[in-house]
Design goal:
The complex is a heterodimer of chains A (283) and B (158). Chain A contains 13 helices and 14 strands. Chain A has 283 residues and is of the alpha+beta class. Chain A folds into three domains: 48 residues, 2-Layer Sandwich (Uridine Diphospho-n-acetylenolpyruvylglucosamine Reductase, domain 2), CATH 3.30.43; 110 residues, Uridine Diphospho-n-acetylenolpyruvylglucosamine Reductase, domain 3, CATH 3.30.465; 106 residues, 2-Layer Sandwich (Enolase-like, domain 1), CATH 3.30.390. In chain A, the strands form four sheets. In chain A, strands 4-5-10-6-7 form a five-stranded antiparallel sheet. In chain A, strands 11-12-13-14 form a four-stranded antiparallel sheet, with helices on both faces. Chain A is globular and about 60 Å long. Chain B is α+β, with helices and mostly antiparallel strands and 158 residues long. Chain B has a five-stranded mixed sheet with strand order 2-1-5-3-4, with helices on one face. In chain B, a hairpin with a 2-residue loop joins β3 and β4. The longest helix of chain B is centred in the last third of the chain and has 15 residues. The interface between A and B is medium-sized, with 28 and 32 residues.
Chain lengths: 283, 158
C-alpha cells in the first residue's frame, strides 16, 4: 500500500484542480521532495494525495535588467550555477550554496523552500533582505505577495487551498551577503544566520535574521542604523548591539537563546563588512 | 491509482514493473526490486550521501526521490559495468589511492564525484571538488585518502 496517491498533472490548471479535488483528505504539492518526503516519513505530514509539479513549465530563470524572476521548480543547483546570480546577487548565491549538499540541490527548489517554510530556511532570510516577492496562481486569481507577507510562521504560509507558487521575483541586483553558524560546517542546518543587502537605488540596507523559530524576520531599525553607505566601525558595532537587544531570540534543540544572542551581532558585522557597497553604485 | 505500472531506465537497461507503489523511493526500487545492492542506505534523511545515484547525469539522493518522479530519466548507479568515462576514472582513482576503509560510503562518493566531473569537468579546483563532496559522509573518517582520490580523478580529466 502506498501512503499517498501521486498525480502528475501536465498543466497548471490541472495541478490546481488536483490540489483542490482532495481538500478534506489533504493534498500537498511536490517539487524536489527533499523536505516533504522527510516530513511524510516522520509522520509530520500525511497527505492523501501528492501532486507532482515536474511537468509544469516553471524551471525558468529570467533576468530583465537587474530584476531576476526564478521559476518555482527550478532546482537550486541551477540557480547557484547562474553567473548572474553569483555576480549580481552574491548573498543569494551564498544562501543557495548553504542549502544541503550538491545532490540535494539538484532536486530541491526555491518554491519548495518557501512553500514548506521551515523556520531554519537559508533562503527566506536572504529573500527578505532582497525585498523579494512571490507570484502565486490559484483557482480564482493570480496574486503577488512580498516574501515577508507570504511567510506566516513556522511551516505556515499565506498559500490558500489550491494555490501554488509560480515564481519568485527579486526586484533589483544588490550587493549582499549571507552568513551562518552551524554545529557542523557541512550539510547542516543553521543555528542562526544573518542576511544583509544594500539597495543602490534606495541607498539603504536591509537586514534579516534566520535559523530559528518561528520564522526569519526583517530588522528595519537595525538596517536604518547602518546608514546609507558603508557604515563606520562604531555604527556597525552599535547596529550589532541593537540587533542583539531587539531581535526576539528563541531556543530550540539546535541552540540556546543565549548562544544565538551572542552571535547575532558578530554575524551582522561579518556580513556587512563582506559586502562591497561600491559595487552597486556603478550599476 | 496508488500502484500502477512503471518503466525505469537503469544503467542503460529498461526495467518494467506491473505494480509500483506511488510512494516508493528510488533507493528501494534499485535495491529490492532490481537487486542493485551497490547503492547503500545510510541515514535515509538526505544527510549522508550513501544512496547517491545519477539522474540524467546529476547526483541525486535516491532515498529522497520517488521512483515515479524519475521514470523519464536515465539512472546511473555504482552497479554500472565499465564504459562510463567519469565513473571508470573515479573508480580507478579510488583504487589507486586506496580510498576506502569499510567501503560503505564508497559507492556514494564515487557516484557523487563522477557526477561532479560530468557537470564541471576540469574547470573545478580541488577545493571546489572537496566542497562539493561535503554531502558524503565517511564514518571511518577516511577523508585524507578520499581527497587524494579526488585529486587523482581531477588530474585524469581530459
Amino acid at each position: 500500500m502506498s501512503a499517498f496517491e501521486l498525480v502528475t498533472p501536465r498543466s497548471v490548471e490541472e495541478a490546481i484542480a488536483s490540489l483542490r479535488a482532495s481538500d478534506g483528505t489533504g493534498s500537498a504539492p511536490l517539487a524536489g521532495g527533499t523536505d516533504l518526503l522527510l516530513d511524510i516519513d516522520d509522520g509530520r505530514a500525511a497527505p492523501a494525495r501528492v501532486v507532482s509539479l515536474r511537468r509544469l513549465p516553471w524551471r525558468t530563470l529570467d533576468w530583465v535588467g537587474g530584476a531576476l524572476t526564478i521559476g518555482s521548480t527550478l532546482p537550486l543547483r541551477s540557480l547557484e550555477d547562474d553567473p548572474g546570480v553569483r555576480a549580481q546577487l552574491p548573498g543569494l548565491y551564498q544562501a543557495v550554496h548553504a542549502v544541503g549538499s550538491v545532490a540535494l540541490r539538484h532536486r530541491a527548489t526555491i518554491g519548495g523552500n518557501l512553500g514548506r517554510s521551515a523556520p531554519a530556511s537559508d533562503l527566506i532570510p536572504m529573500l527578505l533582505a532582497l525585498d523579494a516577492e512571490v507570484d502565486l496562481v490559484g483557482p480564482s486569481a493570480e496574486r503577488r505577495l512580498s516574501v515577508n507577507d507570504f511567510v506566516r510562521a513556522s511551516r505556515r504560509t499565506a498559500l490558500a487551498p489550491g494555490e501554488l507558487i509560480r515564481s519568485v521575483r527579486v526586484p533589483e541586483s544588490r550587493p549582499s551577503a549571507y552568513v551562518w553558524q552551524r554545529v557542523r560546517l557541512a550539510n547542516d542546518i543553521s543555528q542562526i544566520a544573518v542576511a544583509v543587502a544594500y539597495s543602490p537605488s534606495g541607498r539603504r540596507w536591509s537586514v534579516a535574521v534566520g535559523g530559528m523559530p518561528p520564522r526569519p524576520v526583517l530588522l528595519p531599525e537595525v538596517a536604518r542604523g547602518l546608514g546609507n553607505a558603508r557604515p563606520t566601525d562604531p555604527a556597525l558595532r552599535a547596529a550589532g548591539e541593537r540587533a542583539t537587544r531587539e531581535v526576539t531570540i528563541a531556543a530550540d534543540q539546535r541552540a540556546s537563546e543565549e548562544y544565538r544572542r551572542r552571535l547575532v551581532g558578530t554575524l551582522l558585522g561579518r556580513a556587512v563588512r563582506s559586502v562591497d557597497v561600491a559595487e552597486g553604485v556603478h550599476r | 491509482m496508488t500502484a500502477a505500472s512503471a518503466d525505469l531506465t537503469v544503467n542503460g537497461r529498461r526495467a518494467s514493473f506491473t505494480a509500483l507503489p506511488d510512494d516508493e523511493r528510488l533507493l528501494d526500487t534499485l535495491r529490492w526490486r532490481l537487486g542493485l545492492k551497490g547503492t547503500k542506505e545510510g541515514c535515509r534523511t538526505g544527510d549522508c550521501g550513501a544512496c547517491t545515484v545519477l539522474v540524467d547525469g546529476r547526483s541525486t539522493l535516491s532515498c529522497l526521490t520517488l521512483t515515479r518522479e524519475v521514470e523519464d530519466a536515465a539512472i546511473t548507479t555504482i552497479d554500472l559495468g565499465a564504459g562510463d568515462r567519469e565513473v571508470d576514472r573515479v573508480r580507478a582513482a579510488f583504487a589507486a589511492a586506496g580510498a576506502l576503509q569499510c567501503g560503505y560510503c564508497t559507492p556514494g562518493f564515487v557516484i557523487a564525484l563522477a557526477g561532479l566531473l560530468k557537470e564541471r569537468g576540469r574547470s573545478l579546483s580541488l577545493d571546489e571538488i572537496l566542497d562539493s563532496l561535503q554531502g558524503n559522509l565517511c564514518r571511518c573518517t577516511g577523508y585524507a585518502a578520499i581527497a587524494r582520490a579526488a585529486a587523482l580523478a581531477r588530474e585524469a580529466a581530459p
